[in-house]
Amino acid sequence: MTVLWVSAILLPVLTVAALGLAGLGGAHMAANGREFIAKYSALALLPFGALALVGPRAGPIELPWLLLGTHLTVDDVGRPLLLVAVLLYAAALIATYSSRTERAPVLAGFLLSSFLGNALVFVAADTVTFYLGFTVMSLSAYGLVIHEGTATAVRAGRIYIVLTLLGEMATLAALMMVVDAGGLLIADAPSAVARSGRTELIVLLLLVGFGVKAGTVPLHVWLPLAHPAAPPPASAVLSGTMIKAGLVGWLRFLPLGEVAMPGWGQALVVLALVGAFAALVPGLLQNDTKVALAYSSISQMGFLAVLVGAALAEPEIASACVLAAVVYAVHHGLAKGGLFLGVTVWRTHGDGWVRWWVIGGLCLLALAVAGAPFGSGAVAKYAAKEAIEPVGLLGVELADLLPLVATVSTLLLLRAGWLLLTGSRDRAWGVDGALLSWSVLIVGGTVMTWLLAVQWTPLISVPGREGSALWDATWPILVGLGLAALAWLLTHWGRTAALASLLRRWTIPPGDLLVAEERLARGIVGVVIRGADYVTGRSSVWAAGIAATTHRIPPPMAALENIERRLASWVASGVVVLLLGGAMVLMVVLR
Q: 392-393 and 61-63 as β-strands: parallel, antiparallel, unpaired?
């Protein structure tokens, strides 16, 4: 089994290295070599796929020679998400080559490095390995965002990397305190945080650090910018599995089930609900399919964050909430990743007989995300509703609010579908690898979600076939369809058509809050620059006065200046640094 783990880690690394080395030969040979490697790069994910399917459940495996001692495992949280990552990244890599993506070998290299980090997040059993994987994934994703090289992509990449680094700093500070409290192994982390003297601070940093990746309001602003900038295969993994790394971070390190923290739990629930419902307005006022889908992801991640907040506030339901969150993450990862890949598939297969299969697949995926009966979304949302049944907020039960998220999803998906169907597309390419891998995601998403939910019974309940269960899954979608039909009628009714035409021209820039935040940042920078100019002007006056005073320095001061000049030399300053460093080392040893 150790050989399988080592090969799982090394194979993506070697494939990325081969992509780089292939470019060192002649131009023609380099192009052919990199194209060949990119074509079969999805095979590098097979060892991790084998681990997800047959990896042992008995304790973590230890590789003492790697880093500070690496511990890896495939548990009930990481195993299904690892399988989702393998399927989604493989489909993205196949689509990258089959759909003639520009600079496909480069994109394949960044996808492979992102996958390795993403997979390590799901299988890490110690904090150091988890953070290593999280960082590799986050930094590699920057290459996915800026791949197109346009001004929009560069701006999106800049916003992404700034927020990512801020989140990384918060995460690193939190994990260092977790390890200091005794949480080097992830299995010990929740209890270590609970008994730490800095529990409140650790929880705050964890919520912020992982909240950036999870797209939690108000840290969500990178998502609507990154998705339209990145190629559709990259958008699929960004929304399908990368943002789930933030969720896994919460599930691994927050003291869920260890201690009740109603304040932080309710705060996260409030922010999650704001994201789940407030994403509707900016999502509808978009003219790009992928931006509308990105706001749908923000809404869905708000749904997931509600489960985490409820578990943080109520320890007795933590186990059910964690498993329900994993089932929901599996459903959303495959369904939403399939929708983003469907953008590429539609644009390259939107003509000819294949288009009817593509339209049918897109409809199935959209119904799954909305939570239609018998789909993966119905299973995931039913499990979530059952898990948080006893939890309320301001006198309202969360189980009564969460179904309305399906109404938001329905409206956003209708908008995205309309933009996709009315947008441009290429000639029909016929059946290819992208279409086949996408079809596997459509079928596999529903089957896998049902299997997970049934396997984890009785902690997780699955919807039955009785009329009440079917109606609970159906009415939120019907409300969304009714609102969409009403909006369509108003746009075609004579008395409101002019107003509707005016409203259609209104848009909200992707990133919504980011526009105000950028204006605020520019204002702060302007104030700082003006203040610096003022201080510089005043300091020049002060410097002139000081210079005039130095002519009257008495002889002893001249001697001190001579000593200062000697200390300022490279040799003297180096000696001083060595002496001070040696003194500090001696003090540490003696202590």
A: unpaired
Residue range 213-219: average pLDDT? 88
Q: Which residues pair with 397 in a beta bridge?
A: 392
Reduce the DSSP state of residue 40 to 3 states and report it: coil
Which amino acid is residue 530, in one-letter code? R
Model confidence pLDDT, tens digit, residues 362-372 = 898 888 888 88
Q: For residue 109, what are the CA distances in angstroms to 96, 161, 193, 232, 348? A: 11, 19, 37, 16, 23
Angle (CA) 143-144-147 rounded to 5° is 80
* Residue 60 phi, psi (nearest 5): -70, 150
Does an H or E element contain 349, and which?
helix 318-349
Cβ proximity of 324 and 307 under 8 Å: yes
Q: What is the chain's mean pLDDT, rounded?
A: 80
Which residue from 302, 307, 282 is spatially nearest to 292, judged by alpha carbons? 282
Residue with tokens 């796929």: 49
pLDDT tens-digit map of 492-527 = 665 555 555 555 566 666 666 666 666 666 677 667
How many whole angstroms separate alpha carbon 381 and alpha carbon 371?
Answer: 7
Q: d(Cα 425, Cα 416) in Å, to the nearest integer?
A: 15
Among 54-58, 149-153, 235-239, 378-382, which is the least confidently predicted range? Answer: 54-58
Condensed to tens digits (0 to 9), the pLDDT of residues 35-50 reads: 888 888 889 999 999 9
Could you give the dihedral angle defined by the CA atoms of residues 24, 28, 34 and 38, in that order, rounded to the nearest 10 degrees?
A: 170
Average pLDDT over residues 132-141: 94
Does the pTM of the predicted model rise above 0.90? no
Amino acid (one-letter) located at 260: A
Residue of 193, 212, 372, 389 whose CA lies nearest to 307:
389
Give the C-alpha separation, 429 to 91, whole Å.
Answer: 17
Query: What is the C-alpha separation between 447 and 466, in angstroms, rounded?
Result: 20
Identify the CA nearest to 134 among candidates 144, 148, 149, 124. 124
Residue 221 CB partners (closer than 8 Å, separation 6+): 159, 163, 511, 512, 513, 514, 517
- Alpha-helix runs per DSSP H in 146-198: 151-180, 189-195
Q: Would you say the C-alpha torsion 426, 429, 433, 435 has a positive or negative sign?
A: positive
At 61, which helix (H) or strand (E)? strand 61-63
